Amino acid sequence: MNKITIAIDGFSSTGKSTVAKQLAKHLGYVYVDSGAMYRAVTFYAMQNGLISKDDFNVEALIFQLEKITISFKFNESLGFAEVYLNGENIEKQIRTLEVSSFVSKVAAISEVRQKLVEQQQKMGLDKGVVMDGRDIGTVVFKDAELKLFMLASAEKRAIRRFDELIERGDKVLYEDVLHNVVERDHIDSTREDSPLVKADDAIEIDNTDMTLEEQFDKILKLAKMTI
Ligand code: C5P
Fold first, then answer.
1. Which of 10, 57, 172, 197 is the 20 to 30 Å CA partner of 182?
2. Nearest CA to ligand 1 atom 1
3. Where would I find the Cytidylate kinase domain in this sequence (predicted)?
């Protein structure tokens, strides 16, 4: 069967990765979580004292970019690929609210984007890929056969994210999660390099009042019509 590239962009915590994983599994495609790559660079910066609440040493991070190797390894029991930073599995560490609070600043740096976009494009060379992020349909795979743009109300997204973090055992406040979601959207949408915008040819999906099943059915139908 003809393999295509599926680009899923949208605002923070719109459930992009959940539906992307489901879709990739159903189609036998590779799923790539591009946000995990920006989170991995952020985690590296935190571990190496390059970013904190009061300080961000952008030059040092740019200088050290060549020391950062990001890879994915499929975890059979989880059913998706986990992210590794210089050989270490950091899948859990990158999902904290602390990483979320820094990641958009790191993702606004052009040198970081250049490095990660290059790697993402290589991962998509053979098609048969579902990639989610902020600039997949506009920059990484401009020629993707199917582009989706996901949105939902900020409150609904914050509730979903809050529930996820609580389920993991993280101690967070709903207000802080909501603040982070809104702040990230603002930074991601207003940055100079590759801002979060809907590609002209992307199909918009507002899932504020959709169940996961309804959303998956709709997206699978779109994918089948395109393949
Ligand atoms: O998808 P996720 O919420 O994990 O992404 C974390 C952050 O990484 C986003 O808020 C954004 O700043 C950045 N990102 C990006 N471009 C992508 C994917 C993520 O700038 N393609």
1. 57
2. 35
3. 6-224
